């Protein structure tokens, strides 16, 4: 009887200890995920600030550009005017806002990420429309989009041939769902653990981006589908409107 009593007590103690360990581990994971989210948002802010700093710098120089063009015209040097306009056109492309979704925060994140992708010689094709009446927090939406493009850029950079690097983004409403689609070329091996894809980033926040995206989708009772075909990786996310 005493042996049975001690054994039962030990089992209860072990069970409680396991529950505590699981809860503590979940707490640590959640803490690191939210820390990662804060770092990600700070990164987005830095990227957006850098983009608008370039815009302000170009506007500051605008008057000088006009004066230079007037001087060339006065001297009749039309060939130099054409050359100068070509230089300005290339310069403007680096700060041009290419996407207007209807949501300011999403515009900022999308355009900053697309700008970064293009500097890395990645072809980007993006179309995005965000409805005004959306029950998804802008911060959550930016975390999802930011992570998808960050992962796409990371995968593209492992593509040996620069001409084969591409990212496709499509965001819109579809059958009473908010639909987000991202696909990209892939260089190297895509890692999986069971049915879950694993981030290949070599950083302390390894894998937290995918985990954060999944948690946000779960928060809104949405659906995520990731597909891997030879040379291409795609993610579909559907969130109820």
Short description:
With 241 residues, the chain is an alpha+beta fold. The protein has helices spanning 2-75, 78-93, 104-119, 138-156, 208-219; strands at residues 123-128, 166-174, 177-185, 191-193, 196-198, 223-229, 232-240. Helix 1 (2-75) packs across helix 4 (138-156), helix 1 (2-75) crosses helix 5 (208-219) and helix 4 runs antiparallel to helix 5.
Tell me about this structure.
With 241 residues, the chain is an alpha+beta fold. It has one domain (34-240): 2-Layer Sandwich (Heat Shock Protein 90). The chain is built from five helices and seven strands, in the order H-H-H-E-H-E-E-E-E-H-E-E.
Write the layout of secondary structure elements.
Elements: H1 2-75, H2 78-93, H3 104-119, E1 123-128, H4 138-156, E2 166-174, E3 177-185, E4 191-193, E5 196-198, H5 208-219, E6 223-229, E7 232-240
Parallel strand pairs: 1-2
Antiparallel strand pairs: 2-3, 3-7, 4-5, 6-7
Number of helices: 5
Main β-sheet description: 5 strands, mixed
Q: Can you tell me the CATH topology?
A: Heat Shock Protein 90
Strand order of the largest sheet: 1-2-3-7-6
CATH class: Alpha Beta
Uncertain regions spanning at least 5 consecutive residues: 1-5
Radius of gyration from CA coordinates: 25 Å
Q: Which CATH-level-2 architecture?
A: 2-Layer Sandwich
Task: Work out the number of β strands.
Answer: 7
What would you call the structural class?
alpha+beta
Core attributes:
single chain, 241 residues, 5 helices, 57% helix, elongated
């Amino acid at each position: 009887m005493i042996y049975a009593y001690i054994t039962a007590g030990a089992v209860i103690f072990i069970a409680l200890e396991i529950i505590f360990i699981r809860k503590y581990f979940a707490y640590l994971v959640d803490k690191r995920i939210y820390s990662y989210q804060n770092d990600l948002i700070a990164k987005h802010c830095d990227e957006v600030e850098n983009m608008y700093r370039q815009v302000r710098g170009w506007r500051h120089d605008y008057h000088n550009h006009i004066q230079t063009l007037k001087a060339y015209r006065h001297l009749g040097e039309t060939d130099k005017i054409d050359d100068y306009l070509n230089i300005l056109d290339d310069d403007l492309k680096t700060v041009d806002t290419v996407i207007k979704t209807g949501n300011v925060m999403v515009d900022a994140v999308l355009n900053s990420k697309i700008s970064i992708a293009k500097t890395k010689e990645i072809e980007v094709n993006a179309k995005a429309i965000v409805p005004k009446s959306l029950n998804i927090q802008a911060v959550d939406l930016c975390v999802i989009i930011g992570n998808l493009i960050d992962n796409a850029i990371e995968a593209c950079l492992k593509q040996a041939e620069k001409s084969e690097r591409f990212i496709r983004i499509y965001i819109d409403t579809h059958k009473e769902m908010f639909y987000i689609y991202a696909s990209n070329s892939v260089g190297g091996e895509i890692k999986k653990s069971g049915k879950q894809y694993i981030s290949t980033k070599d950083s302390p926040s390894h894998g937290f981006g995918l985990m954060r995206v999944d948690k946000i989708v779960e928060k809104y009772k949405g659906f995520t589908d990731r597909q891997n075909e030879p040379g291409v990786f795609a993610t579909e996310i559907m969130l109820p409107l």
